[in-house]
Design goal:
about 170 residues; alpha+beta; Peptide Deformylase; two-stranded antiparallel sheet; 3 helices; globular; binds ligand GNR; binds nickel (II) ion
Length: about 170
């Protein structure tokens, strides 16, 4: 497994639309292994492949707590088949939008069709934090970040802050 670098907004790659995977094979499994390692290291509960610069429709999620057994879920080519009208408000964060948080409303439950780690077709229902997380990750596949749901002013302020931090880091590196 290889630790990958997580792209940070504003990075145009994060705005790309990810492409479907034809079949889940060893190449895709290696990407999922790397994504999971990278996500755990960053203390995240989900990661989309585009966040490590790979524009494929691949997501990994693990919402298990530190003291619990790890419980990774792998999603390839996920499609939402059904979602509840009822919404859940959750304070979201994103590894590509570091240290910024905002309350976002999303359907409290959703049914998702996807391919798993072994290329098996699955159809499962998810609710609560898991449903929120899946929808957050599926937005990444379309180049959407949670800050896109905020007011223009809030979004602009966050992007400005992140750009400044990035400038600083770049200067140190150079
Ligand atoms: O680690 C993460 N936490 C989180 C919290 C609330 C809603 C969504 C998330 S996903 C995020 C990791 C991430 O950026 N995934 O794309
Ligand atoms: Ni994210």
């Amino acid at each position: 497994m290889t630790l990958r670098k997580i792209l940070i907004e504003p990075d145009p790659v994060l705005r790309q639309i990810s492409k479907p995977v034809i079949q889940v094979g060893d190449k895709e499994r290696k990407i999922m292994d790397d994504m999971l390692e990278t996500m755990y290291k960053a203390n995240g509960i989900g990661l989309a492949a585009i966040q490590i610069g790979i524009p494929k429709r691949i997501i990994v999620i693990d919402i298990s707590k530190k003291e619990e057994k790890k419980n990774p879920i792998y999603f390839v080519n996920p499609v939402i088949k059904n979602k509840k009208k009822e919404l859940l408000t959750y304070e979201e964060g994103c590894l590509s939008v570091p240290n910024q948080f905002a309350e976002i409303d999303r359907p409290i439950e959703c049914e998702v069709e996807y391919l798993d780690y072994n290329n098996k077709k699955k159809n499962s229902k998810f609710s609560g934090l898991l449903a929120t997380c899946i929808q957050h990750e599926m937005d990444h596949l379309e180049g959407i970040l949670f800050i896109d749901y905020l007011s223009k002013l809030k979004k602009t302020m966050i992007i400005k802050k992140l750009s400044k931090q990035k400038d600083k880091v770049d200067r140190i590196v150079v």
